[in-house]
Amino acid sequence: MKKYVKYDNVEYFMPFLYCNDIFIPVLKELLKDEINPIKYVYGCIDCAWQGGRESWLKITSLSQIDYYLKCLKSQNLIPTFTFTNINKIEEKLNDETSNNLLDIAYKNDAHFIVASDALYNHIKSRYPEAKMHCSVINPICKQIDDKNFDETRFYNEMLDKYEIVVLRPEYTIENIDRLDKIISDISRVEVLINQYCRYNCQYHKLHYIVVNEVNYLKFNPTEKEKLGYEIEKMSNLSEDIDKYCPLRLDIDYKSVYMTDEQVEKLVNIGVKKLKLQGRQYNFDMIFYELYQHFFNKEISKEEIRNKVDLICAKMIQADRKKSIIFAMKGN
Question: Are 287 and 305 in contact (CB under 8 A)?
């Protein structure tokens, strides 16, 4: 019997925390006869520290958050919070909602992805043993701001500070033949393999700032009404930037989306952590990315999709509680 999973010796980071988490029980059922390589699920609910990728799963009760994280732990998954806001983050360190979320997440053995030294220091001052990941936003911003930025040195320094460090995709591609020789611990770097953005996009930092701020203004009830015009202005700017950073397959541009050959080379030289983006993707888009990078292509896409659809149907009809996505029902 052919295995569904493409690689046995990697751990996947999946965009299933508070979004598209129906895939958690679906993949568990599909992979019941083999080891499930998904270890981390990342995302975040609306809060001042969140990186701006809006979660459609709205949770307001702290007890619900606690219950949700316990459900994930029962599936042997590590919830990984994207605390990657970089816009005026120093002013938001004392945000009550974010700190409450931090407390509950830490209690449930969550990890934290950050892009700010200030937020890193804040979390570590509260929880010195917190497991921290250095966001890809960090080197992206430094590379844009400083033409003399020594990226290799940066990653090696961050590996002394963080549990896991995310490499910029362009850097990974450009150094793919020597990555294992210039990075001090390649087993602890994480590589985003399905980024659609333009290669070395000049708008990358600005895009992060705009998305961060739009989400924050929408989330903050005291600011939302009086800053309605600012939200509209920032939203329009985000749409303008999207024209240059398109998530579209019908536009001819050089992207950092990695090929099968590139990913296989990374795995062969010792990269053990692969990340798929997709917090805002719908079911079909997530399945497309899974088939491209997660599933063994010796099994046809149609065969896998048919089994995924059948599992979804049976799961929902038999017992909605089996799905993390429905775990909040009645709580």
Answer: yes
CATH number of 11-199+255-326: 3.20.20
Residue 327's Cβ-side half-sphere holds a number of Cα atoms within 13 Å equal to: 26
Annotate 22-67 with three-state secondary structure. CHHHHHHHHCCCCCCCEEEEEECCCCCCCCCCCCCCCCCCHHHHHH
Q: Pick from 136, 135, 115, 112: which is nearest to 124 by CA? A: 112
In 10 A of CB 329, how many CB atoms?
9
Residue 247 vs residues 96, 122, 244: alpha-carbon distances, Å: 34, 34, 10
* Average pLDDT for the chain: 85
In the numeric block, the tokens 């690689």 are attached to: 7
Residue 100, amino acid: N
Asked if 269 and 186 touch (Cβ cutoff 8 Å), the reply is yes
Q: pTM of this prediction? A: 0.87
In 3D space, the residue among 87, 75, 81, 82 whose CA is nearest the CA of residue 38 turns out to be 75
The backbone torsions φ and ψ at residue 23, rounded to the nearest 5 degrees and listed phi first, read: -70, -20
Encode burial over 110-147: b for 16+ CB neighbours within 10 A, e otherwise: bbbbbbbeebbebbeeebeebebbbbbbbbbbebbeee
CB 149 within 8 A of CB 120: no
The structure tokens listed for 301 are: 């896409």
Q: What is the pLDDT of residue 150?
A: 97
Assign 222 to helix, strand or coil: helix
pLDDT digits (tens, 9 = 90+) for 165-187: 999 999 999 999 999 999 999 99
Q: What is the residue extent of each domain of the chain?
A: 11-199+255-326
